[in-house]
Structures are given as structure tokens and as C-alpha cells.
Amino acid sequence: MQGYILRIQKIKDEDCIVYILTNSSLVKSYRFYGARHSKITQGYKLDFELEHSMTFLPRLVNTMHLGHRWLINRDKLFLWQQFIRLFYEHLKELNDVEEIYFNVLEECALKLDKQNAKRLFIEAYSKILEAEGRLHNCDFCFLCDYEIGDKVALARGFLPSHEHCMNQNGFDKDEIEEFFKTKKSLNLSDETVNRLYNILLDGF
Prior knowledge:
- 35% of the residues lie in helices and 22% in strands.
- By secondary structure, it is of the alpha+beta class.
- The strands form two sheets. Strands 3-2-1-4-5 form a five-stranded antiparallel beta sheet.
- The model has no long low-confidence stretch (mean pLDDT 94).
């Protein structure tokens, strides 16, 4: 079985509860002396097995870290772990999950070595919002229901609104609509990407 570690919860001594996202579930497992092992790290991809118990959580055993070259880049690892935390907060109440979440992480992990992390993550964020039916067009403000002009402000989940309704500067509406349609950030400036990334950090 393979999956990405979304969260590590330290408990007594050096033992941990480890939350792992696979292609079909969010696995909650117990790892003896997990704090001693560098491969039990948030954001790492593992190949692993579970030993099931009738009385407690399944034990995480036979783990192997499936690494990527970009893990030695501290900046990219930091941004990756930020993104991973959002996944945990979004999925933590679930046991069974749709494959889209694992696939998005897999795509990001494969591309992160050569691509800009913030651009990659806002693209991934938009794909998840669309898959969940929550990526809206920019025609109407979600706060007042009136039509939006040339500038669109965005709230958490990329919800569109008027600048005055959100009390913040907006984005060029045509640029944002193109981004929502293509899920590509190539035509967005670095400033726009940074602003969109800060919205992403608010959560799914």
C-alpha cells in the first residue's frame, strides 16, 4: 500500500499516530517509536503495510520512504508541508476518500522538482475545487448576488465577490476566469500567484 503522510500525532514516549492518505482512504495507524524514524515525516510518501488489531488502531509496519529529489530543497519542502496540512484539515473527518486527492498530490510530487511550487499548488487547488463542484464562475458576487464587473475579489475557496464587498483589492476578472478554465497559471504574474497562494492557505 502507498500513501502520503498528512499528519503525525505524537503520543506517549516516542510512539505516534500517523495519518496517511492513500488512493481510497485516510488511514489512521499506530507507529511504535515513530518519532525515532526520519521516514515518518509529514509529507513523505510511504510504501507500507498495516497489522490489524481487534482492540486498537492498525500498526504501521514495513515502511519504505519513496523519496523525491526536491525534498532536499528546504523552501519547496516547507511549501509542500503547508499544502499537506490543508489536505489533512479538509479530509480529517473522512475514512473513505475520492481518488482525486491522492492523484493531485501524486501529480504535484512528480512535478515539484522542475516547477514553481506556488503555481503548482494553486493549480492543484483549483482542480480539487472543480472536482468538488465548488469552482464558481466570476459573474456574480457570492455575498450580494449582484453582477461583478472587470475586477473580482476572491475569498476562501476562490469564491468570487466585489472588491467593496470583501473590502480588498481584486484581480483582473478575465485573467482569473482563464485560470479557472485552464487550471494553468502560466499567464499570471508572480504577484497574482502569491496573492492566490495566500488565499489557498485559508483552506479548502
